[in-house]
Each structure stands twice: as C-alpha cells, then as structure tokens.
Specification:
With 326 residues, the protein is of the alpha/beta class. The protein has helices at 10-22, 33-42, 52-56, 72-81, 96-109, 123-133, 159-175, 277-291, 299-315, and strands at 3-6, 25-29, 47-49, 62-65, 85-89, 113-116, 140-150, 181-187, 197-203, 209-215, 217-229, 232-237, 244-254, 260-264, 268-269, 318-319. The protein has two domains: 3-119 and 279-298, 3-Layer(aba) Sandwich (Rossmann fold), CATH 3.40.50; 120-267 and 308-319, Dihydrodipicolinate Reductase, domain 2 (2-Layer Sandwich), CATH 3.30.360. The protein is built from nine helices and 16 strands. A hairpin with a 6-residue loop joins β12 (232-237) and β13. α1 crosses α8 and α7 (159-175) packs across α9. The longest helix has 17 residues, at 159-175. The N and C termini lie far apart (66 Å).
C-alpha cells in the first residue's frame, strides 16, 4: 500500500515520518520548496511535488491531508474524486455542511474516510475506555477535559476548532451519544476575531454531563481527562513521556440522619503498554483501507465531532469584554 501526504509542516512532518517507518510513504506535496528539499534529504526516493493534482495522479491508494484547516474539506473532496481513500487531520472540516459533503462523497465512492483524532489511539486512552466499558467506575456521571498551553495561533480556526476536536472526540467515544444541550463561552484576548479561550458544557440524555476547556494562551501546558463514575474516577494526564493513568475508587454513603460522606481508596496507577499514538492511528487507517475494519474515526464519527464543535459557535459567539468601572 502506498500513501501520499499533503502538508509537510510541523504535524505533517510527524505523519511523514511514521508513514516512512511503516513503509507506505510514496509522495509528499507542499507549497514550500524548502520543506520539500528537507523531505528529499531525509527520505531519499520519495516523490515530492508542489502541485496537488500531480500527487493525485501518482499510483497511491490513499491521501493524508495535513494542510491548513480551511483547506481540509476541499482537498478531501478532490482526493475522493481521484479515487483515493482519505485521512484528514483534525479539524475534519470547519462546517457541518463541508463535513457531510466529504463524508457523503466518500460513502458514494466506497472509499475510507478517516478523521485524525489521534488521542483515541493513545494506549492510555484505549485502556481507559476498556475500564469504563468493563464497569470499573460504574455509570459515567461527568467527563472533564482540559487542554491548555502557549500554542501556535491559527489564522483560519479558533482555539476551539484547533484544540477541542481531541476532547470532543473523547467525550463522544466515552458517552456513545451526541449531547442534548450545549452551552459555553468563547473569548478573544485581542482584536482578532478568533477565540483564544473556550469553555463548553454538555448535557446528555442518560443524565451525564461533560465540560471542555481549551486555550492556547496559558503558560502552563496541560492535557488532562477525568472520567467520573458512580464508583470512582479515572484520570489521564498526557505528558511528553507518555502520560499517566490512575483510578481512584470511592463510595458515597448516607447516614440515618441523611448526612452524606465519601470514603475513598488509594490512588491506583494503571499500567498500559506505551506506543506512539500517531503510529497506532496510521495502522488503524491502513487496516481500514485494506480490510474495511471499523474505526472510531470513521465518516460518521468525523461528522458528529464537527456537529458538536459547530453547536458551540451557534450558542456562544466569540466576544471580547470591555472594562467597566464599578
């Protein structure tokens, strides 16, 4: 199997490296000749081009799209029209209409359509999902996800669309159903129209709730997921070293007088076998192309994540507060 990669930027470079290691890298496209010069040095024999049409004419089975977000939907449709399976980095698209158009075109063509929600392939998250589905913490009552840092400011998508696809994909995977109610706040720190802070709250039909917080203006880099159940909480902290997964069991009891108390056990460190999440994700895409195997990032899931992201924009437009003397 041979793949083409569109986009050789920061994240594209990681995708290119993993494709090369998996032996499936055939062609790379980028508008920067300098970036392509580096590809030719690092990966001798790989075809390079600055023209998307040239890439699509190469004998490849699929295309990985790691271009700027506002080009994802357009490039996805062009790749599908050329008969190629697609792997689209997050955000899959910047509108529900575009997401549905790409997913629909892939379905009609009988091609795989895969969204790059890489955290679903982190070994710790996979283990967390296994524990949740096995009843380790009882019924989920609340999910909290926080992603912050001093990140790269985008010109075409807000921090909500840049960071939160990871968190929304995790929440939907955990609760297995779209939210029934979305509320929140989006805030910008300057005159730029895109949000630099976003906070969203979700309610679900089974009685569970979720909270997502993202910003790229926080000096503390943090990526944490907490899943609260009736019998305990699972916590995942992502770190450059691979992250930690812990389980804290607790029991809420009510006295004869109606008072409540909580008894908790020691924090348990949950082991998991470490592997690079991006490599695991690409292996899942390759298997889906080769065998039609189901993935948690298929076209339906991709559209649902975009739908949830869009719902906050509809209910919480970006605003900038003005100082008011009290």
């Amino acid at each position: 199997m041979q793949l083409g990669v569109i986009g050789a930027g920061n994240w594209g470079a990681n995708l290119i490296r993993n494709c090369a290691q998996l032996g499936v890298l055939y062609v790379v496209c980028d508008t920067s000749p300098t970036a392509l010069d580096g590809i030719e040095v690092d990966y001798p024999g790989v075809v390079t081009t600055t023209d998307v049409d040239s890439l699509l004419q190469e004998p490849i089975h699929g295309v990985i799209i790691a271009a700027p977000a506002h080009l994802h939907a357009m490039l996805g449709r062009r790749a599908i029209a050329a008969g190629k399976h697609i792997f689209v980095e997050k955000p899959f698209a910047l509108s529900v209409a575009d997401a549905e158009a790409v997913a629909g075109a892939a379905g009609q063509a009988g091609l795989e359509c895969f969204a790059g929600h890489v955290l679903l392939f982190h070994p710790a998250i996979r283990r967390l999902l296994e524990l949740v589905r096995g009843g380790a913490i009882g019924r989920i009552v609340h999910v909290r996800s926080r992603r912050t840092g001093l990140g790269r400011l985008r010109e075409h998508e807000s921090v909500w669309w840049s960071y939160a696809p990871h968190d929304v994909a995790l929440v939907l995977a955990l609760l297995g159903t779209p939210p029934t109610l979305v509320s929140g706040v989006q805030h910008r720190a300057s005159g730029h129209p895109l949000a630099d802070f976003a906070y969203a709250d979700f309610e679900f039909s089974a009685g569970a709730s979720a909270h997502v917080e993202v910003t790229w203006l926080d000096p503390e880099r943090s990526s944490r997921l907490d899943v609260f159940g009736g019998d305990g909480v699972l916590s995942f902290k992502d770190t450059p070293a691979g992250g930690t997964l812990t389980l804290t069991r607790y029991e809420v009891t009510t006295s004869q007088r109606g008072g409540r108390s909580i008894d908790s056990g020691p924090v348990e460190n949950i082991p998991f076998q470490m592997a690079e999440p991006l490599r695991c994700e690409l292996e899942a895409f390759l298997e889906a192309v080769a065998t039609g195997a189901a993935t948690p990032c298929d076209a339906r899931a991709a559209v649902e994540v975009v739908r949830v992201l869009s719902s906050l924009d509809a209910r919480a437009p970006v605003f900038r507060e003005m100082a008011v003397a009290l």
